[in-house]
Amino acid sequence: MQRRRVLRPDAPLLRRAPGEVQVGTDPRWSVRLAGLDPDDEAWLRELASPSARRGAGAEQATTSGRRAALVRLLDEAHLLVPARRKRPDSPAPGKGEADLAVLSALRADGAGHRVLAARSRATVAVVGLGRLGAGLAVHLATAGVGTLVLGDPGAVLTTDVGVGAYRLRDVGSPRATAVQRLVGEVAPGVVTAVVPETGAGTVGYGAPPPDVVVVVEHGAADPGRVARLVGEGVAHLSVVVREADVVVGPFVRPGVDPCLTCVELHRADVDPCWPQLARQLRGRTLPAGEESLLAASAAAAALGQVLAALDGLVPRAATACIEIPAPDAVPRLRETSRHPRCGCGELARTPPDGAPLPMSGRRRGAD
Ligand SMILES: [Zn+2]
């Protein structure tokens, strides 16, 4: 038996003119229905009202040719969803109810609770917890990611406070434990762990490996730090805070996407001196602040890439670096591709398009 369906509760039903309505406003799915008689309009209003979740659904209309055509139109626009929406089970604040409408709208089956359920089973590591990384960690908890692994060798500075997560009371505390406490205050159901991170060696994480590791660095990315992640097939996102912009990407699914070394080799093709410049940038020991706008904007951009991957989509940063510049933070994309001299292509066992994200326990290069 077919499930009873109603108009998606978060898509507004708007009257445009006599006999003409519009369902939804997002151009990706909104539809305009014209030539309606008063009975049709009343039927649509009933289908959109909260009481529709108890009464008859769209299927009641399928015996009538006219209504059947309306149902077909709404169906094609994915505007019909099961009458009873499952409540999410998520460690996010309010069990993720605030995110449910949008997540449901993005799925043909309207089952946003499944996205939240998948996020609650995921683990993300954030290494480098300045304003940007701390903000990202709290955003991930807010979005319902179940486990966070946190790494940073430093203590909270007064310049870390504000944008992101830190408060004045955190100044002087180890950054990782301060973020752990802040996540606990926002989403107590999120599991957190602190890993030792020297800031100079390879990126560490607990076992089993996270689904995604985010590495926030300053000046220039260091492919050597993520070599272990590439070898073990752990997806990772590079975020680099530069003089007046932040680069979010590449998001590397090892063996599937261009890696950090590919990006560095391409850059050295354009500027043969780049490797020595990058070495100097990585070696700078000045305390590096993270400007307010850039930290806030880049944390949001990084959040989008990580959640896309966890939600089963291909992150845009898998094939492009997202450059976010001051003063307006309007992102621009710099496309990336595999470099012929990088060996990361040998890890490839699946085609690049639509390939599933390597997740914990299904690691490429380790099986
Ligand atoms: Zn590569």
Automatic annotation (TrEMBL):
Pfam families: ThiF. It comes from the Bacteria. Residues 343-367 are annotated as: Disordered. Residues 118-213 form the THIF-type NAD/FAD binding fold domain. GO terms for molecular function: ubiquitin-like modifier activating enzyme activity. This is Thiamine biosynthesis protein ThiF. It comes from Cellulosimicrobium composti.
